[in-house]
Amino acid sequence: MTGTNTGEGRGGTAALPPHGDRLRGRVALVAGGGGGPDPGFLGTGAAIALLLAAQGAVVGVLDLAAERAEWTCALIGRQGGRGVPLVADVTDEAEVERAADALVTAAGRLDVLVNNTGITGDAADAPDLRQWDRVVGVNLRGTMVTSRAALPHLRASGGGSIVNISSAAAVRAFGSGAYGASKAGVIALTADLAYSWGRFGVRVNCLVPGHLHTPIGDRGGEEGRELRRKANLLQTEGSAWDVAWAALFLACAESGWITAAALPVDAGATAATVLGMLPLL
Ligand SMILES: NC(=O)c1ccc[n+]([C@@H]2O[C@H](COP(=O)([O-])OP(=O)(O)OC[C@H]3O[C@@H](n4cnc5c(N)ncnc54)[C@H](O)[C@@H]3O)[C@@H](O)[C@H]2O)c1
């Protein structure tokens, strides 16, 4: 399963994940699910949307940028699936509620919410506080806004699964300022929502990805890629698919007794000490 370029297993980047039935009859909403322009090099949101669709779900692809939402839906359509493009800013409650309602009107129900939206900002040593507010607003408050909009629909379906996307920057210092702080908040919010909404049959879990090779996270060229390969215990580079497969697991009934978890998807990077990593770099 490793090293393929078909979207199968980890490490692949092409947009053709294998099909299955794990989410047949289910409806998912992926916030920040837009993508483009290269179907061979996907961001995390697009890979998650494609994988959930390939497992039979109708997928609402919510994004700030209409063309990015439509791009992912077109790719889902080319796979034989159904994507519903939705435009909203996750910080805007009314827009997000309208988008969630539109998805349920179009597809009949809601079972899964993936909160993938995330933006970065200034380093911690030179923060512009307006930008700080925007980063926390999108990454942390946005996760609450979409979850709150989804809750009545998840309850109407008899329960469901919310998958939040945090970051290794939440648990290891990285100089990322508001980004790391907001992503740490996402981990805390995950446990808190799991506590509050478990009685409704709503599971809430969180993925904690390490440094990935994605269009937005692609920094440092070939040298950056080599460093990303070395800076973990498997000595390989992570892709959007690695996060997507973990999100699929948390979305499916197979993870039905897992809630309030924060699962690292980082090839062990955050488990090692800095001194322990030095011989590997
Ligand atoms: N790429 C990495 O190395 C990495 C590492 C750890 C965690 N993450 C997290 O994974 C997630 C995905 O990152 P990615 O780099 O793969 O990006 P991505 O390709 O999944 O794109 C994110 C999408 O979010 C959309 N978006 C941004 N602001 C929005 C808003 N206010 N409302 C609605 N949509 C909005 C963008 O238009 C974009 O399409 C983020 O939460 C990020 O913080 C990424």
Automatic annotation (TrEMBL):
Region ranges (Disordered): 1-20
Domain of life where this protein originates: Bacteria
UniProt-listed SUPFAM superfamilies: NAD(P)-binding Rossmann-fold domains
Listed Gly residues bias regions: 1-12
Family indicated by similarity: Belongs to the short-chain dehydrogenases/reductases (SDR) family.
Protein name: Glucose 1-dehydrogenase
Organism of provenance: Actinomadura vinacea
Lineage of producing organism: Bacteria, Bacillati, Actinomycetota, Actinomycetes, Streptosporangiales
